[in-house]
Model the fold of this input.
Amino acid sequence: MAGAGKKKIDAALIAALAWGATIESAAQKANVSERTVYRRLTDPAFQERLTNLRSETLQRAAAILTAASLEVVKTLVALQNPSVPAAVRLGAARSILEFGAKLRESAELERRIAALEQRHSQTGN
Done:
């Protein structure tokens, strides 16, 4: 593979794999063999670029969901209106409680992980 061609193939493979393509599908999109994909996956630099793109993609998706969550909460609260059928209010109430508990749990885990990371960095290990 020539330098520029390899970079173009790697970019196509990384994009396809980061978005969830199978090895077979990624190979087809990059117009290479599956063996080439497996070989590229053994390269630490390739793996790092793939991991970084996957992480960036997840962060973007999380940001979009976070932005939409305020509207979701407003909708669930609006469904608590007495004019809304009781079954719908019950479902909304359950969702509010479930999501609230998961959000608190997630925030607590994030806080604890940050504290552990801080302690770890202070010990120099």
Q: What stands out?
A: Residues 79-125 form one domain. DSSP finds five helices and no strands in the chain. The mean pLDDT is 91. The helical segments are 3-18, 23-30, 34-41, 44-78, 86-123.
